[in-house]
Amino acid sequence: MVLIPISVVIFCISLLIGHFLSEPLSDLAKKMAAFRSGAPVTFEPDGRMYEADLLTSDFKRLVQTTTQQQHDLAIKEHRQNEFISDVAHELRTPLTAIRGNAEMLADPDLPPSLHEKFCGIIVNESERLSRLTHDLLTLQRIESSPIPETMQRVNLHDLANSVVDALSPILHDRQANTSVSGEAPDVLGNPDSLRQAVTNLVENASRFIKPGGHINVELFGMNGNSIIAVKDDGCGFGDVDPKLLFDRFYRTDASRTRGTGGTGLGLAIVKSIAEAHDGTVEAVNLPEGGACFMIAIPSIPADISVKKPHGKTKNA
């Protein structure tokens, strides 16, 4: 008979111990259920049970990671929706022009002079669509695979000269006086991508200078970076936040509109290429007039050897 009271006491003590041990886990389970339902919940160890505190810390890190991922996904989805809206708007304009002029051509009584005019508009808008498609594919390729596949030592002076030579017909038509000056340390990069970036900057500058204007591609090193600065004596970009210039399809005032022939993606491509090379890009208005667009890419130290694509090395 004595054993019965002792057993009851032991059972009660076991219930209390079990409740003490399970309470932190029950509270954690309730918090997880609330978190799954979308309620704001904080996970902080309370010191009641070491193992429960470890589990709570793990859940806290998991919730923080999940919340950050949800935030990043929301931003990405917003940017994608914004991008699709911008692309649709940019495509609608030339398509509308092509359709409208094509309908005018269907008029059998249309004078020959207007026939030629409308055909010219259709050709120009078709070319613009082609440029826009090309730039969209270029931007998508860079952003989907941001790290260049072929990395090698790049001499920026040689690269800048090759860009100016390639653009010489366009620069000549726009009566642009273009020069390359200075020297910058070599960089590790993808020559084709870097050439694309410099081409976009020089070609962009040529759109906004007057006939006989000047473009200078200046090279120099600063704070461990190699700088490519493309300067022009055009109209500049006014009081606009320079960071906005590198957004897709962003356009400033009437001087930098579709009338210049751009797609609104050139500077966005430059930014993506610079960031893919662990670099940055900036824009400033020059005090004497015009604009300066600068790409900064980490320089290769003079005592470093870099592997070329075919496997051999070239000493600095």
Could you give a quick summary of the protein structure above?
The protein is of the alpha+beta class.
Structure description:
By secondary structure, this protein is α+β, with helices and mostly antiparallel strands. It folds into two domains: 11-144, Helix Hairpins, CATH 1.10.287.130; 152-298, 2-Layer Sandwich (Heat Shock Protein 90), CATH 3.30.565.10. Helices cover 53% and strands 15% of the residues. The chain contains seven helices and nine strands; from the N terminus they run αααβααββαββαββββ. A hairpin with a 2-residue loop joins strand 4 and strand 5. It is elongated and about 115 Å long. The model is unreliable at 254-259 and 308-316 (pLDDT under 50).
Q: Helix/strand-derived class?
A: alpha+beta
How many whole angstroms does the radius of gyration measure? 31 Å
The domain count comes to 2
Which homologous superfamily in CATH is the superfamily of the largest domain? Histidine kinase-like ATPase, C-terminal domain
Beta strand %: 5-15%
Q: What is the CATH topology descriptor of the largest domain? A: Heat Shock Protein 90
Task: Enumerate how many helices there are, as a single number.
Answer: 7
Q: What's the topology here?
A:
Blueprint: H1 3-36, H2 50-105, H3 112-144, E1 152-154, H4 156-166, H5 168-173, E2 177-182, E3 187-189, H6 191-207, E4 214-222, E5 225-232, H7 266-276, E6 280-285, E7 291-298, E8 306-307, E9 313-314
Helix pairs in contact: 2-3, 3-7, 4-6, 6-7
